[in-house]
Amino acid sequence: MPYNFHFDPVELPPEAQELRREVRAFLEAEIAAGNFGAGSGKGPFNKDFARKVGERGWIGMTWPKKYGGHERSHLERYVVIEEMLAYHAPTRSYSTADRQSGPMILRYGKESVKQAILPRIASGELCFCIGLSEPNSGSDVFAASTRATKTDGGWLVNGRKIWTSNAHNSDYMIALLRTSPPTKENRRHGLTQFLIALKTPGITTRPIINLTGAHDFNEVVFDDAFVPDEHLIGEVDMAWKQASDELAYERSGPDRWLETFSALVELVRRAGPEPDERLAEGIGREVAHLATLRRMSLSVAGMLQAGKTPAVEAAAVKDLGTNWEQALPDKVRLLAPQEGDSAPPSNDDRFEEALRYTTLIAPKLTIQGGTREVLRGIIARGLGLR
Ligand SMILES: Cc1cc2nc3c(=O)[nH]c(=O)nc-3n(C[C@H](O)[C@H](O)[C@H](O)COP(=O)(O)OP(=O)(O)OC[C@H]3O[C@@H](n4cnc5c(N)ncnc54)[C@H](O)[C@@H]3O)c2cc1C
Question: N or C terminus: which one in the chain shows less Cβ crowding within 10 Å?
């Protein structure tokens, strides 16, 4: 049956507004104390910051208390994520675990693993990375060939994962591994998800330097690395049923449209209180896009709160959000008042830094977490168009 998008309007409850004030006060105190700067990106890897966020109860917010969670709503979590991103807080040491690895373990992990791992994620102690892409399988994750072969008490892993963000800083990876060949009826059959401790002998992490010159992602090589049975996530050979849940967690949040936001903020600062008509109109247009994306993304948070898996809506938010944020640095450059214009630039350094950074990261935005073309394929299939 054809599917229609559902983006029901969601209003943030009063407790979320109160929480927003708390998060802002915390972040402003951290900046004032010099613990992180008002830069552009997600900031450096910073475990101290993660621990402080964990102490405040802002990691694993929606998880059950018995696993170290806080049983708060997805809408409250949404507010925390939004503020962290808007302030460029250094969340990279815990954000992947909070966003997708933890929820996957909660949903499909063994009880002993939930008890051992989830509280350590929620306290900000553990960092996770995502092991989906391989040299010969990126968009087509179900073509993965890195193997897990059954052995006594567990599995031996051999092969390579690539573009693994943060693997060099991570304690664990959730990896999609080949445990059987695909079947004629289902080419997605035969893959299994595992929790892999990255300190396990037989695992080598090699850096890949990105366009900004930073070491952010890696190649991870497995050579007879042992993974215990207990670390199986979900059913053997049936990961195709689970991986789309993981991608829905990955795709729907404000992290998919707030990565180049600093360019817009600095443009508004540069425009001053009385921008000319052209600039005011340009800023207004971008803010209107931003406000619409935010409503859509909030609506997805509302669906997660209702226990749904809004995969098609999440793909639409990611596609629209990343296309918007990818185009933003160029639009800001064109709109910015030039020397000799009525509003003299007062934020030269910050403006230039925001433009430099956002221009360099723009190309990756429509690749990471699923390319533009692949997302549109998912949306088309979801709508019954292919
Ligand atoms: C900054 C960054 C961080 C990343 N972090 C991680 C990570 O932590 N873990 C991880 O596992 N991966 C990560 N990735 C990898 C990312 O998920 C893949 O790059 C992405 O899925 C695309 O795969 P690929 O690079 O192999 O390109 P391909 O799949 O080879 O695609 C090449 C081109 O072909 C197009 N294409 C492919 N298939 C189709 C199709 N069916 N229909 C139409 N067009 C198609 C694509 O859109 C693309 O334009 C990261 C990537 C980036 C850029």
Answer: N
What are the structural domain ranges in the chain? 14-126, 130-239, 252-382
Question: What DSSP assignment string belongs to 160-204?
Answer: EEES-TTGGG-SEEEEEEE-SPPPSS-TTTTEEEEEEETTSTTEE
Which one, of 102, 28, 87, lies nearest residue 79 by Cα?
87
Domain 130-239 part of CATH 2.40.110.10: yes
Distance of CA 162 to the CA centre of its chain: 17
DSSP 11: P
Ligand 1, atom 39, residue with closest C-alpha: 374
Contact 212, 231 (CB under 8 A): no
Q: Which fold has domain 252-382?
A: Butyryl-CoA Dehydrogenase, subunit A; domain 3 (1.20.140)
Residue 174: is its pLDDT beyond 90? yes
Q: Is the pLDDT of residue 324 over 70?
A: yes
- 23-45 tens-digit pLDDT: 999 999 999 999 987 666 667 78
CA distance 336 to 344: 11
Q: Is 94 in the pocket of ligand 1 (CB under 6 A)?
A: no
Q: Is 133 in the pocket of ligand 1 (CB under 6 A)?
A: yes
Q: How far is residue 15 CA from its own chain's centroid?
A: 24
Which of 70, 69, 94, 68 shows the shortest CA–CA distance to 81? Answer: 94
- Torsion (CA) 42, 48, 49, 52 in degrees, nearest 10: 160
DSSP 42: S
The answer to whether the CB of 153 falls within 8 A of the CB of 232 is no
- On the question of pLDDT at 77 being above 90, the answer is yes
β-pairing, 128-131 with 172-178?
parallel
Q: What sign for the dihedral angle of Cα 328, 331, 336, 339?
A: positive
C-alpha 340 – ligand 1 centre gap (Å): 44
Pairing of strands 191-197, 147-151: unpaired
List of residues 6+ apart from 309 with CB closer than 8 A: 244, 245, 248
Q: Which CATH class is domain 14-126?
A: mainly alpha
For the chain, the helix, strand and coil percentages under 3-state DSSP, each to the nearest 5: 50, 15, 35
